[in-house]
Amino acid sequence: MTTLKDKVAIVTGTAHPMGMGYATARRLADAGAKVVLTDRVADDLGRVELDARAAEIVEAGGDALAIAVDVTVREQIDACIAEVKEHYGRIDILFNNAGSPAGCGDFLTMNDQQWDISYQVNLKGLADFCQAVLPGMIEQGGGAIVNNASLSGLGAIPLMAAYTATKFAVVGLTKALAAEFGPHKIRVNAVCPGMIWTQMGQSEIEHQQEEGETFEQAKQRLVSADLVPLERWAEPEEVADAVVYLAADSASYISGVALPVAGGMAPGL
User: Fold this and answer.
1) For residue 1, is pLDDT > 80?
2) Helices (H) and strands (E) in the chain — how many of each?
3) Structural domain count, the chain
4) pTM of the model
5) How far apart are CA 115 and CA 119, in angstroms?
6) Catalytic residues
7) Tens of pLDDT along 28-45?
8) Region 244-269: what's the mean pLDDT?
9) What 3-state DSSP class applies to 69?
10) In a domain, 18, yes or no
């Protein structure tokens, strides 16, 4: 069994109970890591949801801390890093999971807000979190960063222009950081999920639903054998298992990789 005993991990985008962020936080805690759950908290309900995810991990015997962080605000990222260091003393693992599907839709009608949100959340916030944790990892002699890039970071399909552009950039940034910080014993990898049964996956069905097609029919069509050889949607925990592997010493000689977690699905053009 993978062990992350005494490791400290930060996971962004963890408030939704169906999300890959929360699933990964649970898997990291199961492997022995102390886990910091972060997410954007827009209101009291958001705070309750984030706290609930951390409480569930603690109730299951894990060590978890919830910190409200909007990844588009650098000051909040820096405050998070300072709080984690004060509470746990170090940061060993970062999983940049927070993302936005705002950049999906007809390219010709895509507006500045869609581009801005896609860039700020999917790329700039991820880069800022990396920049914030790297000095500490260098000082302590190593660490592991895993970025959530999506299969859309490896290939393109229609109606996802801004989303795809930012996810390609995440893969590029992952490789650049792996090259630059490898000498400091810091590994940087990416996971590239395909059809995952999350809240965003459900939205994808509605986005791809054809005229006259039911939700259930669209759900099955999107994982048909000609698209996904394994012929099913993945559970968020299956992505989480890949993240834990890449973050652990079991992947000690793997860096700069963009790993599809997609059931054999081709990435697109």
Assistant:
1) no
2) 9, 7
3) 1
4) 0.96
5) 6
6) 163
7) 999 999 999 999 998 888
8) 97
9) coil
10) yes
Residues 101-156: tens digit of each pLDDT: 999 999 999 999 999 999 999 999 999 999 999 999 999 999 999 999 999 999 99
Is 201 among the domain residues? no
Report pLDDT for 207: 78
- Using DSSP bridges, classify how beta strands 143-148 and 93-96 pair: parallel, antiparallel or unpaired: parallel
Buried b (16+ CB within 10 A) or exposed e, 43-54: eeeeeebbbebb
Task: Answer yes or no: are the C-beta atoms of 142 and 130 closer than 8 Å.
Answer: no
Residues in the chain: 269
| Rounded-to-integer distance, Cα 253 and Cα 249, Å | 8
DSSP bridge pairs for 147? 96, 190
Task: Give how far Cα 16 sits from Cα of 143, 187, 240, Å.
Answer: 26, 27, 14
Strand partners, 160: 105
What is the widest separation between alpha-carbon atoms in the chain?
Answer: 58
Full residue range of the structural domain in which residue 254 is found: 8-196+235-261
